[in-house]
């Protein structure tokens, strides 16, 4: 009985032409990470469940993909009356939800062997048991850069530069880097008299774009936050103006909140510093409504949106004061950002930014004229590859039309004809498959042209 070939919902295959585009995204981001002093790191696809749970908030924990233990655990299910105990016994591991928590675990396990501040970048897939939709998948790649072991706001300012430079290098020219500070959100909670419900306030604000003011007010009410407090909250988070005007407004609003004022001071310093670090193509916006849903954020938070594409945020990140503390190493503050490669791909595709990107697997295809010319052709093929040029030869002595069709379908930009006449003259026919132009060149000139 044959099996119908399918893949799990929320996952995708990536054919060669798509992978070449994805590699362009990864390599562009990686180059910027390396430029700013970040070193590569990889962690396992699965982590112990205890490492992941309790780090992402109630909603995040529900989206963790748990892995069933191997063996006969399910056959012993009747031994466990408590369903929670059963769940733990048959699932002690899970697919990683993000790259930040595994990074914190790595830092603690290797703290005696690394130098602080420790800067790393990581480009790997993560998994979330979410409802698949456009721009949201169950398996997707994140491109993270984090530094741990320093409280310096220089890193916050540099991340604005990294986000701007990487996205600009990818060809995006209309995006907004959005910033806020979780201490400012703490200030909101203190000012409205709901300090003990800080998390509830953050979760509600984080949903503002999705459910609107009416929905957020209902959520606040459901969490027993009075309407008067909600009125005060919306007065603060809906204030508009320049960055300087927002900072001055919050200084006045947070007169009785030390935490809130600290957040404002941090934002003021970050905005002063980043302007001295780079020239910017994207817009940088101090957004008083930005919350970011993850519980471990404690300071500056980031989000990036492409303004002319409806796809949600393509990057995010923030400062976390003590994520390593849950693994037994308190006092190591960290901050990081994450590029959502899959959403970036979708945005670039919608904007037509891949149209001029070469996605051919090779630069040139050598036409096969048969055994009489095969050895000289193979020697030429070897010279091209030795010069760093991607090249292949058609495997059979097929009709010319078939070989050219093969090159055309694969998008190979050039074909190289090495027949008996060409071998005698030492000048080979290089054909531009797009224009149809054909020129006679020596191997050295062909290498120079293809480079």
Model description:
The protein is of the alpha+beta class and 451 residues long. It contains 17 helices and 16 strands. It has helices at residues 16-35, 49-52, 57-62, 83-90, 100-109, 154-169, 182-191, 198-206, 208-222, 227-237, 243-253, 258-274, 341-350, 371-386, 400-410, 420-425, 443-450; strands spanning 39-40, 46-48, 66-67, 93-95, 118-127, 139-148, 175-181, 283-286, 300-306, 313-320, 334-340, 364-367, 391-393, 414-417, 428-432, 438-441. α14 links the parallel β12 (364-367) and β13 (391-393). α1 (16-35) packs across α13, α6 crosses α12 and α11 runs antiparallel to α12. It starts with 15 loop residues before the first helix and ends with a helix.
Question: Tally of extended strands?
Answer: 16
Q: CA-to-CA gap between the ends?
A: 52 Å
Strand content: 15-25%
* Spatial strand arrangement across the major sheet: 1-5-6-11-10-9-7-8
The parts where pLDDT drops under 50 for at least 5 residues are: none
Largest sheet: 8 strands, mixed
**Apparent shape:** elongated
Helical percentage: 40-55%
Please, what is the average pLDDT?
Answer: 90
Task: Walk me through the topology.
Blueprint: H1 16-35, E1 39-40, E2 46-48, H2 49-52, H3 57-62, E3 66-67, H4 83-90, E4 93-95, H5 100-109, E5 118-127, E6 139-148, H6 154-169, E7 175-181, H7 182-191, H8 198-206, H9 208-222, H10 227-237, H11 243-253, H12 258-274, E8 283-286, E9 300-306, E10 313-320, E11 334-340, H13 341-350, E12 364-367, H14 371-386, E13 391-393, H15 400-410, E14 414-417, H16 420-425, E15 428-432, E16 438-441, H17 443-450
Parallel strand pairs: 1-5, 7-8, 12-13, 12-14
Antiparallel strand pairs: 2-4, 3-4, 5-6, 6-11, 7-9, 9-10, 10-11, 14-15, 15-16
């Amino acid at each position: 009985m044959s099996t119908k070939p399918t893949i799990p919902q929320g996952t995708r295959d990536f054919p060669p032409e798509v992978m070449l585009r994805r590699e362009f995204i990864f390599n562009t981001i990686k180059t910027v990470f390396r430029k700013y002093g970040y070193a590569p790191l990889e962690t396992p696809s699965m982590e112990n469940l205890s490492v992941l749970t309790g780090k992402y908030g109630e909603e995040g924990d529900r989206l963790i993909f748990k892995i069933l233990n191997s063996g006969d655990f399910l056959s012993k299910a009747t031994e466990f009356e408590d369903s929670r105990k059963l769940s733990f016994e048959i699932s002690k591991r899970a697919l990683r939800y993000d790259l930040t928590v595994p990074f914190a675990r790595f830092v603690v396990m290797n703290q005696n062997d690394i130098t602080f501040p420790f800067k790393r970048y990581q480009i790997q897939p993560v998994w979330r048991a979410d409802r698949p939709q456009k721009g949201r998948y169950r398996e997707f790649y994140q491109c993270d850069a984090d530094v741990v072991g320093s409280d310096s706001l220089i890193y916050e300012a540099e991340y604005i530069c990294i986000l701007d430079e990487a996205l600009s290098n990818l060809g995006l020219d209309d995006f907004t880097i959005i910033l806020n500070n979780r201490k400012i959100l703490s200030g909101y909670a203190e000012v409205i008299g709901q300090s003990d419900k800080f998390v509830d306030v953050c979760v509600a604000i984080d949903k503002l774009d999705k459910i609107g003011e009416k929905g957020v007010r209902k959520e606040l009410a459901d969490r027993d936050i009075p309407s008067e407090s909600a009125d005060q909250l919306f007065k603060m988070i809906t204030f508009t103006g320049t960055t300087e005007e927002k900072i001055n407004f919050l200084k006045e609003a947070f007169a009785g909140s030390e935490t809130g004022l600290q957040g404002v001071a941090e934002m003021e310093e970050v905005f002063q510093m980043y302007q001295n670090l780079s020239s910017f193509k994207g817009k940088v916006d101090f957004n008083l409504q930005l919350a970011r849903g993850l519980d471990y954020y404690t300071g500056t938070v980031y989000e990036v949106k492409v303004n002319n594409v409806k796809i949600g945020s393509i990057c995010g990140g923030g400062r976390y004061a003590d994520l390593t503390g849950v693994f037994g190493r308190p006092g190591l503050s960290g901050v990081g950002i994450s590029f959502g490669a899959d959403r970036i791909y979708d945005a670039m595709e919608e904007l037509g930014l891949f149209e001029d990107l070469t996605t051919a697997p090779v630069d040139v295809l050598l036409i096969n004229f048969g055994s009489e010319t095969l050895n000289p052709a193979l020697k030429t093929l070897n010279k091209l590859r030795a010069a760093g040029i991607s090249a292949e030869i058609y495997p059979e002595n097929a009709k010319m039309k078939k070989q050219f069709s093969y090159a055309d379908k694969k998008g190979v930009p050039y074909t190289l004809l090495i027949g008996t006449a060409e071998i005698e003259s030492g000048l080979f026919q290089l054909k531009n498959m797009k224009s149809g132009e054909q020129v006679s060149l020596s191997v050295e000139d062909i290498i120079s042209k293809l480079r």
